[in-house]
Write a structure and sequence with these properties.
The chain has about 90 residues and is α+β, with helices and mostly antiparallel strands. The chain has one domain: Aminopeptidase, CATH 3.40.630.30. Helices cover about 20% and strands about 40% of the residues. It has a four-stranded mixed beta sheet with strand order 1-2-3-4, with helices on one face. The chain starts with a strand and ends with a helix.
Protein backbone atom coordinates (compact mmCIF):
# COMPACT_ATOMS: atom_id res chain seq x y z
CA UNK A 1 0.00 0.00 0.00
CA UNK A 2 1.49 3.36 -0.95
CA UNK A 3 1.73 6.22 1.52
CA UNK A 4 -1.49 7.87 0.30
CA UNK A 5 -3.71 4.81 0.12
CA UNK A 6 -6.15 4.34 2.98
CA UNK A 7 -8.69 1.79 4.09
CA UNK A 8 -11.76 3.05 5.85
CA UNK A 9 -14.16 0.83 7.78
CA UNK A 10 -17.65 2.07 8.55
CA UNK A 11 -19.61 0.20 11.20
CA UNK A 12 -23.24 -0.05 12.27
CA UNK A 13 -23.91 -0.71 15.93
CA UNK A 14 -27.32 -1.42 17.44
CA UNK A 15 -27.83 -1.85 21.18
CA UNK A 16 -24.06 -2.13 21.65
CA UNK A 17 -23.86 -4.95 19.08
CA UNK A 18 -21.83 -4.70 15.86
CA UNK A 19 -24.36 -5.52 13.16
CA UNK A 20 -22.66 -4.48 9.89
CA UNK A 21 -19.41 -3.23 8.39
CA UNK A 22 -18.48 -1.65 5.09
CA UNK A 23 -14.89 -1.18 3.95
CA UNK A 24 -13.54 1.32 1.40
CA UNK A 25 -10.12 1.68 -0.19
CA UNK A 26 -8.82 4.82 -1.88
CA UNK A 27 -6.19 7.53 -1.86
CA UNK A 28 -5.94 10.69 0.20
CA UNK A 29 -3.18 13.21 0.76
CA UNK A 30 -1.30 15.36 -1.69
CA UNK A 31 -1.84 12.91 -4.60
CA UNK A 32 -5.43 11.70 -4.21
CA UNK A 33 -7.16 9.81 -6.98
CA UNK A 34 -10.74 10.39 -7.98
CA UNK A 35 -12.23 7.12 -6.82
CA UNK A 36 -12.71 4.78 -3.91
CA UNK A 37 -13.47 1.07 -4.10
CA UNK A 38 -15.97 -0.69 -1.90
CA UNK A 39 -14.04 -3.79 -0.85
CA UNK A 40 -16.35 -5.42 1.68
CA UNK A 41 -19.88 -5.31 3.09
CA UNK A 42 -20.83 -7.70 5.88
CA UNK A 43 -24.12 -7.74 7.78
CA UNK A 44 -25.01 -10.04 10.67
CA UNK A 45 -27.53 -12.64 9.44
CA UNK A 46 -30.32 -11.53 11.78
CA UNK A 47 -30.10 -7.95 10.41
CA UNK A 48 -30.02 -8.75 6.68
CA UNK A 49 -32.85 -7.38 4.59
CA UNK A 50 -33.56 -4.54 7.02
CA UNK A 51 -31.72 -1.74 5.18
CA UNK A 52 -28.61 -1.60 7.37
CA UNK A 53 -26.13 -2.03 4.50
CA UNK A 54 -28.07 0.48 2.40
CA UNK A 55 -27.68 3.06 5.16
CA UNK A 56 -23.93 2.35 5.34
CA UNK A 57 -23.61 2.64 1.55
CA UNK A 58 -25.45 5.99 1.53
CA UNK A 59 -23.12 7.24 4.26
CA UNK A 60 -20.10 5.96 2.30
CA UNK A 61 -21.24 7.84 -0.81
CA UNK A 62 -21.40 11.08 1.14
CA UNK A 63 -18.07 10.35 2.85
CA UNK A 64 -16.16 9.87 -0.43
CA UNK A 65 -17.65 13.10 -1.81
CA UNK A 66 -15.87 14.95 1.02
CA UNK A 67 -12.60 13.83 -0.57
CA UNK A 68 -13.61 14.90 -4.09
CA UNK A 69 -14.04 11.36 -5.33
CA UNK A 70 -16.09 11.14 -8.50
CA UNK A 71 -16.47 7.36 -8.44
CA UNK A 72 -17.36 4.77 -5.83
CA UNK A 73 -16.51 1.48 -7.51
CA UNK A 74 -18.59 -1.53 -6.49
CA UNK A 75 -17.81 -4.96 -7.92
CA UNK A 76 -19.00 -8.46 -7.10
CA UNK A 77 -18.87 -11.97 -8.48
CA UNK A 78 -21.67 -13.01 -10.82
CA UNK A 79 -22.70 -15.85 -8.50
CA UNK A 80 -22.96 -13.58 -5.41
CA UNK A 81 -26.74 -13.25 -5.58
CA UNK A 82 -27.13 -11.32 -2.31
CA UNK A 83 -24.56 -8.70 -3.35
CA UNK A 84 -26.10 -8.31 -6.79
CA UNK A 85 -29.51 -7.64 -5.25
CA UNK A 86 -27.94 -5.08 -2.93
Amino acid sequence: MDEFQVRVRLVAVYKQELIATLQLKGCLGSKPNDHFTLTSVVTAPQYRGKGTSTILLEFAKEWVKQYDARILLVETWENNIAARKF
